[in-house]
Amino acid sequence: MSNLQTESQQELEETMETSEPNVTAETERTLDHVSYFGYSLLRDVLIPELLGDETNTISYWAGKHLARKYPLNTMDEIVAFFKAASWGTLTLAKKDKYSLELELSGDVVSKRFQQETCSFHLESGFVAEQIQRQNNCLTEAYLTHKEKNGKVLISVQWDRKDILPTETRAERYKK
């Protein structure tokens, strides 16, 4: 094994030791600097241009798809994923028997509000699918923007009567 491979492996191991629990090595790999401009160019300019009127719907379902690729077992893991993905700071604002409210904030969220086409449906879909997986019942998430505060409220609701069949759940999370 070359010195470069050894150094990279050691850096990765050190990063994983200091990271949040159960966040995969893949989510922890970072560049020295990722500009906000590059991030915003993709999320808030190019994607809306390509998807047009369907941006919010497709982004929501893309978020659900990402959640299936990166299944997380706890709310703490979801919070850590948001941090690793540079989606902002996710905090639990309120929790009831069949719903919860999450607040998404941080510099990246505040800056994204400056874009005319900013959408947080990717994040909303991701949360909906993770909670659906954790609760094993049909779950949806809704957005409320709080532009004055630079925050987004994600309201998540589920119905315990609408339980996912075991075989469907197993097939769904197989990949």
UniProtKB/TrEMBL annotation:
InterPro entries listed in its UniProt record: DUF2507, NO_sig/Golgi_transp_ligand-bd
SUPFAM superfamilies, per the entry: Ligand-binding domain in the NO signalling and Golgi transport
Pfam families linked: DUF2507
Residue segments, region Disordered: 1-27
Protein name per the record: DUF2507 domain-containing protein
Naturally occurring in which organism (per UniProt): Priestia megaterium (strain ATCC 12872 / QMB1551) (Bacillus megaterium)
